[in-house]
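Predict structure. Chain length: 625.
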Amino acid sequence: MAVFSILLVIIATSAIVTEQQVSQLNAQEEMANSIERGTNDLNVVSNDYFLKQESQQLTRWQSEFSALSNNLSNLKLNSPQQEALINNINDDMQRLNSVFSEVVIFLKNAPRNVSVRIDPAFQNQWSIMAAQNQALAFDASLLSQALDSQASQAMKTNIFLIMALLGTFAAFFATIYVMVFRRTLKSVTDLQEGINTIGSGDLNYIIETKRQDEISELSYAFNQMAANLKTVTASKTELEREIEGRKLAETALRASEQRWATTLASIGDAVIATDVSGRVTFMNNVAEELTGWTMIEASQKPVKQVFNIINEQTRQEVNNPVTRVLEEGLIIGLANHTLLLRKDGKEVPIDDSGAPIIDNYGKTLGVVLVFRDITEHKQMQSKLEEYSRHLENLVAERTKQLKDAERLAAIGATAGMVGHDIRNPLQTVTGELYLAKSELKNLPDGDAKASLKESLDMIGEQTVYVNKIVSDLQDYARPLTPCIEESDLKKIVQSVLATIDIPENVKVNQSIEKNFQKIKIDQSYVQRIITNLTNNAIQAMPNGGKLTIKVTRKNGKALISVEDTGEGIPKEVESKLFTPLFTTKSKGQGFGLAVVKRLTEALNGTVAFESEAGKGTIFTIELPL
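Prediction complete.
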């Protein structure tokens, strides 16, 4: 028991430690993902500044760069390979910031009436910045993959430890059960063999008493009885001495019987003795308590009336063991699932055995029943089975989580690489588009210029659309581990509205409950949720309307609602609304609302909607405070 206990403590402690390691690695992986997202954001800001050359883009660059540096400094890693990646990322960031500063200086000093794309110096700087940005994104992706691999290995170790804990528990209780069962059965068998030997006339036989328990006391009593009988039969020289010897023997026998009765009355198990007719001749206190009958009430009554037993499962009467012992002359044990019906009608689960009482001449004098209440044992066995099922379910759940995490990690890595490969040519397309628009302004007005401007605008819209598809795919496939921190909902809403191109025919109304701005959330998750819902609301109002964003508090929850007065959602598609790749728009990949639902659930929140055709739709996000 001591060895099993030590093993259980060691395995349980190891499981807890590995669980903590998994949590820490997931947090580190999320920070690495934030660095990867920050790299993409720097790329977008540099393109915006190249297109617009406003101070707002410089401010955003500094903000994004500072956030990226802060995330990098917060990473706590102990692997030389991972520390080398962090050093590479830090060097990439410094070089990228330096190149961006040179580009900013060049654009500020460049004349407005000359295209910068023909300047070899600018082309060289711009190419260096694009290559540096790609190197930074690649190193960040390698760091994220390394942390994900380490977290997966730690989770596998945790599952192995849980399975080892389950196996150790099963072995522990099985060992205890086998030891107790074999010990009791062997003791009763040894006692029965000794009784049969003494009863056959071998009064020199001594029953061994290996333990200090109730069976040992019975053995001692039978040994004493045999010794007394041997003394009685040894003195036969004269009739008087024989009579006196018999008297002494009878006295010793009565004393032995008294000791026997006293011993049976004091042992922990219930004992009932019967005569050859199956009528009760003796009951100890435990038997009285379990059956509800007193010795006076049960004396000379059929044992079946006092010891009434049924099968727990079939509820059918069980053959009384006394009858079988008298017929077969052997020790008989009850089958499993046996219930004793007490005198008051209550049911008690028991196990028992019956043995014949045989005299020195091999004649059966009656039967002794030994039984015990196994209620606590059954309850313990039931708890063990319940706990085993719980552990099995836990192992199955953790195994599924591991498989899902590995699948999403593989999809996320593929989506990340595809995103990088698509966004690099998109950056070139965006730059060339800006230069083409700049040169278009110098052309004389006419149909050709108007047609060309319309084509360039269409290319710009499609470029933004392709970039949104890549972002939605990466957000949906990336494993989610939110970074919870105190955030300002009012600033988040205002930031979202500032980055969305809202048509003039759409009126925006925002309402933040007074004294309710701070909440512990992942700011990037909530910002993406509100952005997707706002874009959907605007697209639902092609002819204009009213967009309303509200933030309130109710029943310990934060409620964020986005309402439009658009076309509404058809009833037949409501059940598929959050399904990936399902969309009702002519343009769209069906990731927007799927990403909203996934991000919301990652924050332990829920998303719901109400819609009426021709009147509009309200999406409500509920998050814990």
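Summary: Residues 433 and 456 are 7 Å apart (CA to CA).
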